[in-house]
Design brief:
SAF_FlgA; elongated; 5-stranded mixed barrel; single chain; cell projection; alpha+beta; SAF
């Protein structure tokens, strides 16, 4: 009795396929590996320009596709904000002779390895980073985020805004430059271009690190001027 039921179910299934696509000779089978290949090529195209080593860790798709005979084309769509790494839900659109027959949601997980600066020990808030406190290692962007520091030169001499464990990536928003000039400090104001060089004495109205823009008051004219911090005693007016 059980065998009879299986035979009947198989017959019904075959009739169903034929009713959708006509004669079985007019259908084609798309293997699961083909769908995976399409997704792999799409991820590669999204990560080629990122200077990372991209590895697909997971493709949430299983099963073959039965389609009517004809020219098969694929289109893969990703969320607009997806950068090509981490987890994302993609849509694989399958067309036969230009007609959309499948729209398959596929979850992917992509590892993106790249060089980044990591701490070599636990560090406390306010510590100044030295050369021995950090190292460059290859890590996954999906775990570290976009604001990673890629060069040791970018972090040494800067101060930590918060405490950090050892062996974790450093982000640029966790660091701050040390102010060279304090608020109220008397500084030299330098006005300089290719033709002239003029100096005046001023007082800083705010603190600033190298390259920061600060307001200084010219002590002779009492006028406020915007200038850029050059070193611990000099600001420069750009004109």
């Amino acid at each position: 009795m059980r065998n009879l039921l299986l035979v009947i179910m198989l017959a019904v299934s075959l009739v169903s396929v034929q009713s959708r696509f006509g004669d079985s000779a007019e259908v084609q089978l798309i293997k699961e590996q083909e769908i995976r290949r399409v997704i792999g090529e799409f991820v590669k195209s999204r990560t080629d320009s990122l200077a990372v080593e991209a590895n697909i860790k997971k493709i949430g798709y299983k099963g073959d596709l039965t389609l009517p005979a004809g020219q098969v084309d694929y289109e893969v769509k990703a969320p607009q904000q997806w950068e090509g790494w981490g987890s994302a839900s993609l849509a694989v659109i399958v067309r036969v002779d230009g007609r959309v027959l499948k729209n398959i949601p596929v979850r992917v997980e992509v590892e993106a390895l790249t060089d980044m600066v990591v701490t070599t020990r636990q560090m406390e808030q306010g510590e100044i980073i030295g050369n021995s406190d950090v190292a460059v290692q290859k890590r996954d962007l999906a775990a570290a985020g976009n604001k990673i520091c890629r060069s040791i030169a970018d972090v040494v001499g800067k101060r930590l805004k918060s405490s950090l464990r050892g062996n974790v990536p450093l982000r640029s928003d966790q660091l701050e430059k040390l102010p060279l000039i304090k608020s109220g400090q008397v500084v030299t104001i330098l006005l300089e271009n290719e033709l002239i060089r003029v100096t005046a004495t001023g007082r800083a109205k705010g603190a600033g690190a190298a390259g920061d823009s600060v307001i200084v008051q010219n002590l002779a004219s009492q006028k406020d001027i915007q200038a850029r911090v050059v070193d611990s005693a000099t600001v420069k007016v750009e004109f």
